[in-house]
Design a protein that fits this description.
five-stranded antiparallel sheet, 5 strands, alpha+beta, Hypothetical 12.0 Kda Protein In Nam8-gar1 Intergenic Region, Chain: A
Length: 114
């Protein structure tokens, strides 16, 4: 097991979805065809998260049944999680790109009015 859960990203029709996986090795086994692994052992939490801004990063909200129905044609969370596991991609290292560098942190967020 790793210290941090991995994000499994799925590009939906209208929005992007994320689930969290605790054990990337089990996820890889499952992805490679080992369907004997119970999904409960792979997924951290049985919730599907949505990013309305797009991508794997940003503010994640729990997806509503309407969101699931619009993108997956079902609101059954178990079926949606299985689809994301089958077709999604691991975005564990998507937090920072390798060319990230701080420009000048002392500038902060800009003019704060002080």
């Amino acid at each position: 097991m790793t210290n941090n859960p991995h994000k499994i990203f799925y590009k939906g029709v209208d929005n992007d979805f994320v689930i969290f996986v605790d054990d990337p090795a089990l996820f890889e086994k499952y992805k490679n065809g080992d369907t004997t692994i119970p999904i409960i052992d792979i997924v951290s939490i049985f919730k599907v998260f949505i990013n309305r801004q797009g991508g794997a990063e940003g503010i994640l909200d729990e997806a509503s049944k309407q969101d699931l129905n619009n993108n997956f044609k079902t609101s059954n969370v178990d079926e949606v999680i299985k689809k994301i596991l089958d077709e999604g991609s691991d975005k564990h290292n998507s937090d920072l790109s390798s060319d990230y560098s701080s420009r000048n942190d002392s500038y902060g967020a800009g003019d704060t009015g002080n």
